[in-house]
Design a protein that fits this description.
By secondary structure, this protein is of the alpha+beta class. About 50% of the residues lie in helices and about 20% in strands. It has 2 domains: about 25-95; about 95-173, Heat Shock Protein 90 (2-Layer Sandwich). A hairpin with a 5-residue loop joins β1 (about 1-10) and β2 (about 15-25). The termini are far apart. Residues about 165-173 have low confidence and may be disordered.
């Protein structure tokens, strides 16, 4: 609960009471908790990658790949911040979506690539089925990333070491 009070000041400058506003901020706190959790995970991955820059044996191609990962992680952080800002400023049932066309194959590869570079993977693997169809579709990429990201993370956490997660949702029927 958040409470704000303000005095009522008359034209002659005298205070004549006050007004208080009580606001239930439960939903806002839940959104903040999710936001900070997601931002910390992404920033932690970014920090882990910066440590790789110290590797003197890294060749040019590996450095180029690392730069792409940095860009991807930075984009993810920016998207998370923008989504959080949007959720806080939107009223209930008034969330404006940023719909655009994306390719399922590159989207899923990006999602899996992100998780392969996190500490939670350990020796676990997730694969996209070889018969998966690369389809173009329209979606809000940030929200879809959030939903699938949580599903992937839950799958990783629920799997035993060296177990492959070959989800049927990634394969063509």
């Amino acid at each position: 609960m958040r409470v704000n009070f303000a005095p009522i000041i008359l034209d002659n400058g005298l205070k004549n009471g006050g007004v208080g506003i009580f606001e239930d901020i439960t939903e806002r706190k839940q959104i903040e908790k999710i936001f900070f959790h997601d931002i910390m995970n992404t920033a932690g991955s970014l920090l882990n990658y910066t440590e790789l820059l110290e590797d003197e044996d890294m060749n040019i191609e590996e450095k180029k790949e690392l730069i792409q990962v940095f860009g991807s992680l930075a984009k993810r952080i920016i998207n998370e911040i923008n989504t959080h800002r949007h959720l806080l400023t939107s009223g209930k049932n008034k969330i404006k979506l940023n719909i655009k066309k994306i390719r399922s194959g590159s989207f899923l590869e990006g999602m899996l690539d992100f998780y392969y570079h996190t500490d939670i993977m350990e020796n676990k693997r997730i694969i996209i089925g070889a018969d998966s169809m690369d389809a173009e579709f329209e979606t809000d990429e940030t929200i879809l990333s959030r939903i699938l990201g949580n599903m992937i993370k839950n799958s990783i956490e629920a799997s035993s070491l060296n177990e492959e997660n070959n989800s049927e949702m990634f394969t063509k029927k």
